[in-house]
Write a structure and sequence with these properties.
The protein is α/β, with parallel strands linked by helices. It has 10 helices and 15 strands. α1 packs across α3, α2 crosses α3 and α5 crosses α6.
């Protein structure tokens, strides 16, 4: 089989099965695992897959820049945001992550809702300036422009000095096996720090993120309260998550 044919085979397998196991592909094609790994390295370099131990997973479309992400699945994000906003109770305190889905949550909060919003995102704060009853706390640090949020040691230290009833957290990859992932190590650390300061953590994930993976793990499933998604409940990845005991809240 030519290299181009192997590539098409791998991409087709990834689309059908949602993952590639290198040793199984090698056995099926009668080639070495090293050949499969080289093909996966080439595909990963082109952004066609996310390599993981033993093979590859679909790459998340949410790893593009902040401005570009605003055009990715806006309807799904609004559906997820509507459900998430309903979890914020009057008088409660919520840690609201950055990113485009979290921004949709901020815009979905009732203007007269009395609550405390803690965030490391300047865009979230700006979106809530006209909410007269909302107390706003901005955690500072180095600004990670890809997601328009503060990250790094200063931001993590600031997060360790707050607490909240609820954390609404965005990620770029949601997968039954690899857990919750994002593309930057410091951003992943910041998300962990935020989650640790809340009684409950819910993951915000529109359907295009389901079944995909990014480079750095944020949290394992046992560390989260539930997942809010507009993905079809019959989606194979969603069904596996439900079987694992993850609370999946349908948005739609």
């Amino acid at each position: 089989m030519l290299a181009a044919e192997r590539r098409d085979h791998l991409l087709g397998l990834l689309a059908r099965e949602g993952k590639i196991v290198a040793k199984d592909v090698a056995a099926g094609l009668g080639i070495s695992e090293d050949s499969v790994r080289r093909d996966l390295r080439d595909l990963a370099a082109e952004g066609q897959c996310q390599r993981v131990y033993g093979g590859a997973l679909p790459v998340s479309p949410a790893v593009v820049g902040y401005a570009a992400r605003q055009a990715v699945a806006p309807d799904g994000k609004r559906k997820v945001a509507s459900v998430a906003a309903g979890l914020v109770r009057p008088g409660g305190a919520v840690i609201l992550d950055g990113g485009t889905t979290a921004l949709a949550v901020a815009r979905a909060l009732p203007p007269d809702l009395a609550c405390t919003v803690i965030t490391h995102s300047p865009t979230i704060v700006a979106a809530l300036l006209d909410h007269p009853e909302a107390e706003l706390f901005l955690l500072g640090g180095r600004i990670f422009k890809h997601s328009a949020v503060a990250c790094g040691a200063a931001a993590v230290e600031a997060a360790q000095n707050v607490s909240a009833d609820l954390c609404l957290l965005g990620v770029t990859g949601v997968h039954p096996e690899t857990g919750l992932t994002t593309e930057d190590a410091e951003e992943a650390a910041m998300k962990r720090a935020l989650s640790e300061r809340a009684a409950d953590t819910y993951i915000l994930a529109s359907s295009e993120k389901i079944g995909t993976a990014s480079r750095f793990r944020v949290l394992p499933w046992e560390k989260v309260t539930g997942l809010i998604t507009d993905a079809d409940p019959r989606d194979a990845a969603v069904e596996r998550l439900t079987a694992l005991g993850v609370e999946v809240i349908a948005a739609g």
